Amino acid sequence: MPKSTSLLWLLALCSVAACAPEPTPPPNILFIFADDHASAAISAYGSTVNQTPNIDRLAREGMVFENCLVTNSICGPSRATVLTGKYSHLNGFLDNESGVQFDGSQQTFPKLLQGAGYETAVIGKWHLGSAPTGFDHFKVLIGQGPYYNPPIGSITDTTVVEGYTTDVITDLTLDWLKGRKDPKKPFMLMYQHKAPHRNWQPGPDHLDSFEDQEFELPATFYDDYSNRSSAAAKANMRIDRNLNANDLKITPPRNLTPDQLARWNEAYEPRNEALKAAGLTGKALDQWKYNRYMRDYLRAVQSVDDNVGRILDYLDESGLAENTIVVYSSDQGWYLGEHGWFDKRWMYEPSLKTPLIVRWPGTVPESVRNTDIVSNLDFAPTFLDLAGVPIPSDMQGQSLMASLRSGHDPNMRVDFYYQYYEFPGSHCVQRHYGVRTDRYKLIYFYGIDEWELFDLQTDPNEINSVYGKPEMAEIQGALKIRLTELRKHYQVPEDTRPMPEEACTSDAEGWMGFDSE
Ligand code: SGN
Ligand code: CA
């Protein structure tokens, strides 16, 4: 057809309005959430212990946040903050252990997106007690959920699904993506893993991974916790003392099918026989425990990475990748033996920081490292903002849109408020709150009235508190004022709940289930 004719044909076919460029549809949101995934176990964050090629792909094609800090470094509270954009004292979910359930009648970002026309779903770990609200579809683990053959709760029932939980959650996620009710609607999907949470059970594909790799004890493994408050020395989360026979895979998981158990025993029985025969003690035994811990933890991580790859491949094949913002994060950070620890909870860097990687083709530039002080408090306002939904004024986070577009937002916060509440409780970590700037961190353990101050530039491992040193007086004073201001700004009440002095539960000593001498 000659050009002029084709133009006339086009004009004849459509009115001016119908030919106006289509408005860009709101982006889909895929929120990938791991549980207890340390940045130090992601190669895009410079891991020296493993490779995560699929998560790295998101980093290469998007932005890596190096300072994403959580409001309260523990599972349920982090999830409640993500959903509400509010600190724990306002969303009502202070800790995992006091039996409080998340109040699902409150405002959450999934509800607001649902109201704005998004199809919403959550699949995988939920761990907030009450049933999910604000979702068109949910399939969630019950409580923490097991690593194999998990019972999965939906609106109608609970069904046991055979398989390795990380794979099962991904299968259910792919099923949902492929069978969406109304593919014309944008979607917001929370795809949330249990892994690599304690007790780090590997999946069938990775039972032998890392077996030949040796892991050196971190520099602070034998931390004696001097030069700090009395809190760190009292915690029960040491790799050399507090891991039990299940953690160390001396005993197999209890709920495996005969086939799964056979494969498990094939991997672990010879290793455990060799351990018994070796009769290790002292540092050699500590090294053995550390290596078993690291290998199992990283095996659980590798399955997460493999499954992220399955999801990213599907986004590519289906054409969804282009208009889907993909976020990778974890409910908090984690210790890979720093200070001798596993677990989280502390305001110290490895548990305060959580991974955050965002890919959004055409909006977020590729391969950018972002050092803004951002937080899981910001996720809800960001998701609303990118969907064009107004951010309610009672949300306490900031939209990351400006930071995402350019790699730095000049209006981003310059200091951050943190508070942890779960004492007494697992691992015996005192309640504390504090403020962190790009260089300093002031922590107040308010149950024991003790302070810590760290200069992250000269003491990145946080082993020498300089609280009370005359040369720090000015900085310390300014940080205290700032802490008071932040508590006021975020409307933080005094924590008046009872706090028995020595009531914390002690985690396992005498770990082996057999005599190692
Ligand atoms: C369980 C774990 C603890 C862990 C908490 C909280 N013990 O109680 O080690 O700190 O969960 O984790 S276990 O022996 O049951 O694994 S959280 O991710 O849910 O906050
Ligand atoms: Ca967690």
CATH topology of the largest domain: Alkaline Phosphatase, subunit A
What percentage of amino acids are in beta strands?
5-15%
Query: How many domains in all?
Result: 2
Low-confidence stretches: 1-17
Q: Which overall shape is indicated by the principal axes computed on the Cα atoms?
A: globular
Q: Total helix count?
A: 14
List descriptors.
517 residues, alpha/beta, Alkaline Phosphatase, subunit A, 2 domains, ten-stranded mixed beta sheet, four-stranded antiparallel beta sheet, 14 helices, 30% helix, disordered N terminus, binds 2-deoxy-6-O-sulfo-2-(sulfoamino)-alpha-D-glucopyranose, binds calcium ion
Describe this structure in words.
This protein has 517 residues and is of the alpha/beta class. The protein has 2 domains: 28-203 and 298-414, 3-Layer(aba) Sandwich (Alkaline Phosphatase, subunit A), CATH 3.40.720.10; 205-285, no CATH class. The protein has 14 helices and 16 strands. The protein has helices at residues 3-13, 16-19, 53-60, 75-84, 88-91, 109-115, 165-178, 231-234, 258-278, 282-318, 349-352, 379-386, 401-406, 473-489; strands spanning 28-34, 63-65, 68-69, 119-124, 137-141, 151-153, 158-160, 187-192, 324-330, 356-359, 368-370, 374-375, 416-420, 432-436, 440-445, 450-455. The strands form 3 sheets. A 10-stranded mixed β-sheet has the order 7-6-5-4-8-1-9-10-2-11, sandwiched between helices. Strands 13-14-15-16 form a 4-stranded antiparallel β-sheet, covered by helices on one side. Strands 3-12 form a two-stranded parallel sheet. Helix 6 packs parallel to helix 12 (379-386) and helix 7 runs parallel beside helix 10 (282-318). It is globular, with a radius of gyration of 24 Å. 45% of the residues are buried. Residues 1-17 have low confidence and may be disordered. Bound molecules: 2-deoxy-6-O-sulfo-2-(sulfoamino)-alpha-D-glucopyranose (SGN) and calcium ion (CA). 2-deoxy-6-O-sulfo-2-(sulfoamino)-alpha-D-glucopyranose binds at residues 35-36, 74-75, 96, 127, 144, 197-199, 343, 426-427.
